[in-house]
Write a structure and sequence with these properties.
Layout lengths: L1 H6 L26 E5 L4 E7 L11 H9 L2 E4 L8 H12 L7 H5 L1 H13 L12 H15 L8 H12 L3 E3 L3 H9 L3 H13 L1 H17 L2 H14 L1 H22 L6 E6 L9 H7 L5 E2 L1
Parallel strand pairs: 2-5, 3-4, 3-5
Antiparallel strand pairs: 1-2, 1-6
Helix pairs in contact: 3-8, 6-9, 11-12
């Protein structure tokens, strides 16, 4: 879940998850994080995305080809109709502590000291976090870490495809709403919220290497490498992994299957870690009897 947590932030990474890192040590991949399945009269493409990338990162040609074939785009959220001001307002409404509580009180002095140290290391005034619930503080730290690495959501896969789709007048719809995505994070039990935050703090020293490795795996189509990331973190954070990954995958299946009855070809774009490993969207579709082709 190293990258998954960042991917699920918002527009995010998970991640994944989230840059032109060093190339994978493996030989050039024959496949990418792109699959297709045939409907009654159409084709539905499933693309694993990275929500944060460096501006110079080029998308694989196979992604451009799938985009050209698709007549409509489906993303985690409807990106072309995204009201960023309303989103920020909802985020603050859900992510701000009651007036009589602070993050330091929620965490305790010793734990908060580690959060404060991490914020200062990223150049963030700790007081800006002290009114936030742990899940939103975690997101702020994770996003700041990504941006300090030179990664930007404006250069991520979704934003690039959204820009193209708006230009080409291709419709975009979402598998879930911003309110649902934020609500999922906001309703995590307190223990899991603190776990999310401390993950962001404790893994910070390894974040750059891990993110580079994960994006290199995405770029080279190393789905087994991506799946290993999930397997490791499922063992460490099973209660956090289920609502952020598995439960969402299961909710999306019916919507994706419904696309198979349409006439138009679709490109479905979700975080790459949603498409690899056990209980991924790909795994669940295959268990339903669908035959998928990896490109």
């Amino acid at each position: 879940m190293r990258k998954a947590l960042r991917q699920l932030g918002l527009l995010l990474v998970l991640a994944c998850s989230l840059q032109p890192a060093a190339a994978s040590a493996a030989a050039p991949a024959e496949h990418h994080t792109l699959w297709s399945l045939k409907g009654k009269t159409n084709v539905v493409y499933l693309l694993g995305s990275v929500h944060f990338l460096k501006p110079g990162e080029q998308l694989p040609p196979v992604v451009d080809a799938a985009y050209r074939e698709a007549e409509a785009i489906v993303m985690e959220i409807d990106m072309d109709d995204l009201d960023t001001e309303a989103m920020r307002a909802t985020m603050l409404d859900l992510g701000t502590l009651p007036a009589d509580r602070t993050l330091e009180q929620e965490l305790g002095a010793a734990t908060y000291a580690r959060v404060r140290e991490r914020a200062e290391g990223l150049g963030l005034e700790p007081l800006l976090l002290n009114r936030l619930r742990p899940w939103l503080a975690a997101m702020r730290l994770s996003q700041l870490q990504l941006m300090k690495m030179g990664l930007n959501p404006e250069s991520g896969v979704e934003q690039r495809l959204t820009t193209q789709a708006v230009r080409d007048r291709k419709p975009i719809t979402g598998l879930e709403t911003v309110d649902q995505q934020l609500g999922m994070l906001a309703t995590l039990p307190d223990r899991q919220q603190r776990e999310f935050l401390m993950y962001s703090v404790e893994e910070a020293d390894h974040a750059t290497q891990e993110i580079d490795e994960l994006i290199a795996a995405w770029r080279s189509g190393d789905t087994q490498g991506l799946a290993r990331v999930l397997a490791e973190d499922f063992e460490r954070y099973p209660d956090l992994y289920r609502p952020l990954m598995v439960d969402r995958n299961r909710r999306w299946i019916a919507s994706i299957e419904a696309l198979l009855d349409e006439k138009e070809d679709y490109l479905v774009v979700v975080g790459a870690l949603h498409l690899v490993g056990r209980d991924s969207v790909i795994d669940l579709l295959e268990r339903e009897g669908h035959k998928l082709t990896q490109h």
